[in-house]
Amino acid sequence: MSPSRPSRAAKRPKPAKRAPASRRPGPKRAAPSAKPRRARRRSEPEVDLSRFIPGIHNYCDRWCERCPMTHKCYVFWLEKGREAQHRAAGRDPSDWDVVVQDVRSQFRQAIEMLREAAEAHGIDLDHLPQGDYTSADPSAHPLHQGAEAYLETAHAFVQDLHRRLAGEHASLEQRAMVLGPERVAGEYRDILDAHEVISWYHTLIPAKVHRALSSRMEAEREGDGGREHRMGDALGSAKVAYESVVRSMAALRRVYDWDQGLEDQVIPLLADLDRMRRQIEETFPGFQEFKRPGLDPE
Fold it and tell me: Which ranges of 89-180 would DSSP assign to H, the alpha helix?
């Protein structure tokens, strides 16, 4: 059994520019359409939407392989459907050209969703007012800087650990003869799992920290109509970041217990994560009470 490849640092798109409600002039409204609203968008397959939990994907960690709620997630259902279509047509769903095709399709679908929602509210998207607006930039916040620094340090550690585990895999048979196959296999599975956890979350943490801080900054300058929504997004994103930090700390402790010779690498990472954990608690009071759809008990 060989260790999984560490994930590469994901590039996060910059948040779209949007004027706060208190400063934006009202959009030009078109006459409401007399057509009845469709039950589904034209680009989507037919499915009973009542089987899914609305918004369950908004504040998850995107680790579908480990999620017990995928059967309630519409986004997961769509993605698996696309993969099945590609395989049925003889295409590799992970091929770059296929991925780009899917992104274009999703973008067109998002535009269609936006236009249908605007039409339902009598808004003409082709005649929106132009405004001078700068999107929130949280890069100067200590929490943001700490998350970005952790990304770089953790990525190097994940790569080193991957190489170390590859070497361990080569000597498993010999160690099993001395210590027993069940013990050796159990230890190796445990450290592989720890590696996967650190690898997965080290890119997710800065992404969720960025979103949480950006939404918090937007909430502070929004009008009454948008402040609650923005703060809800900030708290939900902070909760995902916090849980990712806690799980990463637990995984790093398992690595340390496995080989204390890695102390010089593990201890600084644990210190960085613990600092971020406390900063999230201080910056987003009440985030633990935020209820994520389908993921937190009511």
Answer: 96-120, 142-170, 172-179
The token duo for 49 is: 């939407």
Please give the backbone phi and psi of residue 29, each rounded to the nearest 5 degrees, phi first. Answer: -100, 130
d(CA 150, CA 98) in angstroms, rounded, equals 32
Rounded CA separation 146/250 (Å) = 19
Q: Are 188 and 3 in contact (CB under 8 A)?
A: no
- The structure tokens listed for 260 are 């204390």
Q: In 3D, which of 297, 213, 288 has the Cα closest to residue 246?
A: 288
Q: Which tens digit of pLDDT belongs to each residue from 234-291? A: 999 999 999 999 999 999 999 999 889 999 999 999 999 999 999 999 999 999 999 9
With a CB cutoff of 8 Å and minimum separation 6, the contacts of 33 are 119, 120
pLDDT tens for each residue of 183-242: 667 788 899 999 999 999 999 999 999 999 999 999 988 766 678 989 999 999 999 999
Terminal C-alpha separation, the chain: 40
Which residue has tokens 């690898």?
199
Residue 96's contacts (CB-CB under 8 Å, 6 or more residues apart) are none
Its pTM stands at: 0.77
CB 73 within 8 A of CB 52: yes
Query: Structure tokens of 162?
Result: 């991957």
The SS3 assignment for 180 reads coil
Would you state the structure tokens that stand for residue 281, as one six-digit string?
Answer: 């608690």
Token duo for residue 141: 């916040």
